[in-house]
Amino acid sequence: MTEKTTVIFTITNAAGLGHITRGLAVARRLQTLNIESVFFTTSVAIELIRKEGFKYFYVPTKSFFPSEVTMNLWVDFVKRQLDEVVRMYKPAGIIYEGVLPSSSMIIELQKYKNIKRIWIKRENYKAGWQSLNTLEQQFDLIVVPKEVGNSYGEVVETDKKKYCNPITLLDANEAYSRKSVRDGLGVKRDERLYYVQLGVGSNIILQNALMYVQQHLLKRRKTKVIIGESLVDIPIGVIDKSIKAISIYPSSRYFRGIDFAIAAAGYNTFHELVQFKVPTLFIPNESTVVDD
After folding, report:
1. How far is it, in rounded angstroms, from Cα 271 to Cα 260?
2. Contact in structure between 201 and 230 (CB atoms under 8 Å)
3. Backbone angles phi, psi at 131, to 5 degrees
4. Residue 124 and residue 127: Cα distance in Å, rounded?
5. What is the C-alpha separation between 165 and 156, in angstroms, rounded?
6. pTM of the prediction?
């Protein structure tokens, strides 16, 4: 029996599930290459990792610790935990899926000799964030997922930097059929099914947009509306009992049964709706820090 190669995904916390989802997407494909993935994460969405069948180690973010725990103490704690995981699994590579690797993380990764350092690095930042490119030299391999509808021009690949097609979690044949989706949600044959997913519920601007969208859709006849709720944020309030809020992951399993979507223009949601050819009105979140 051939011994499996192991990689460790280090995934930081974020407002949504983008980093976790892309990490899971890559880990699922690595399985077909007999590569085992172990997750080391500060994301509270660890249940999603467990359901996909991967091993994981969870380290809470500093905000979960007592106030007397300083940032330096927390960083030291994270380093010790990662050291133990590396010692146990002896990975061939450590894959970072995140926006900005901290200086302490870079120093930590550099000490692991003979372990490849890989960064899944989304690009197309807002102005002023091009300095992130200087951090690439701290890694052995940079993998850049492209974006649909965004011209990259003549990309120059090197041995160290590779571009790939947009990363999505599901393959097309893994989604539920149109009939099963509509039967499961109680959608009548003559009704149109609208899916609304505008991001995390704690974003006030998006809350206002969600209220407006609900008010508009309620005026439409023979319409069924479902709202996708975040699994890691506060519940979304619906303004009418005919609108159903559901927490589903991955939501793309339902996309074959949707007639129209109104969605945030986040990387994962955007590419999944495009992948399943759902007519969609995308609403950008203009309060992002890095994403353009």
Report:
1. 15
2. yes
3. -65, -20
4. 9
5. 15
6. 0.89
Q: Which residue in 202, 206, 192, 193 sits closest to 265, CA to CA?
A: 206
Instruction: Please state the length of the chain.
Output: 292
The tens place of each residue's pLDDT in the chain, 292 residues long, gives: 457 899 999 998 666 788 999 999 999 999 999 999 999 999 888 999 999 999 999 999 898 999 999 999 999 999 999 999 999 999 999 999 988 888 888 889 989 989 999 999 988 777 777 777 888 899 999 999 988 876 556 677 888 999 999 999 999 899 999 999 999 999 999 999 999 998 755 565 677 888 888 888 889 899 999 998 877 666 677 878 888 888 888 999 999 999 999 998 888 999 999 999 999 999 887 776 666 6
CB atoms near residue 197 (< 10 Å): 23
- Comparing C-alpha atoms, which of 132, 123, 129, 127 is closest to residue 150? 123
